[in-house]
Recover the amino acids of this structure.
């Protein structure tokens, strides 16, 4: 199995699926649990900052914010209120980025009008092996966040757990394809 195939198998295993290995004529398959890592969010200098869990072979390409409009419309129930692409910094590329402004991204496709709502959905765009796809999205509740006691470098997850940036990333099962091996 070449490195590219190994990385793809590890990615599939990290997202839930079937992982099969072929070793000198012997093969084995196993079902894997889906990767259910939560991202963290915090407030830094008045900005909402996301700490998104990434594997070493992934990078953030952009992000969008949507609000739930299911009660107000006949559409899909969500309206995009902000979107941007092209990370400006290494921190943004590595998963730590500001939402709702152009601080972390070079090109805002949709500018935020007014303030961030109390509750919104964030969907990152993740670059993996040259392909951009929708990442694992999640909800940010600013009411919950304002009531949290976070230290420097700490983030809160949707479930209320407080984590550092390293702990957010450690939730991911990146597989043997990652340079760190796990």
């Amino acid at each position: 199995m070449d490195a590219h195939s190994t990385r793809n198998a590890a990615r599939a295993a990290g997202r839930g699926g079937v992982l099969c290995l072929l070793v000198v004529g012997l093969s084995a398959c196993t079902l894997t649990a889906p990767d259910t890592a939560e991202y963290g969010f915090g407030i830094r200098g008045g900005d909402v900052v996301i700490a998104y869990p990434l594997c070493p072979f992934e990078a953030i390409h952009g992000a969008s914010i949507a609000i739930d409009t299911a009660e107000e419309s006949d559409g899909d129930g969500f309206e995009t209120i902000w979107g941007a692409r092209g990370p400006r910094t290494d921190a943004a590329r590595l998963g730590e980025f500001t939402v709702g402004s152009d601080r972390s991204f070079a090109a805002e496709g949709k500018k935020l009008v007014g303030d961030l709502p109390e509750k919104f959905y964030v969907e990152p765009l993740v670059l993996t092996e040259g392909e951009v796809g929708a990442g694992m999205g999640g909800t940010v509740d600013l009411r919950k966040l304002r009531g949290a006691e976070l230290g420097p470098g700490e983030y809160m997850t949707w479930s209320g757990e407080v984590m550092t940036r390293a702990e957010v990333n450690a939730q991911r099962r990146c597989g043997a394809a990652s340079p760190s091996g796990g």
Q: What stands out?
A: Residues 1-34, 176-182 have pLDDT under 50 and may be disordered. DSSP finds four helices and 13 strands in the chain. The longest helix spans residues 3-15. The chain has one domain: 37-170.
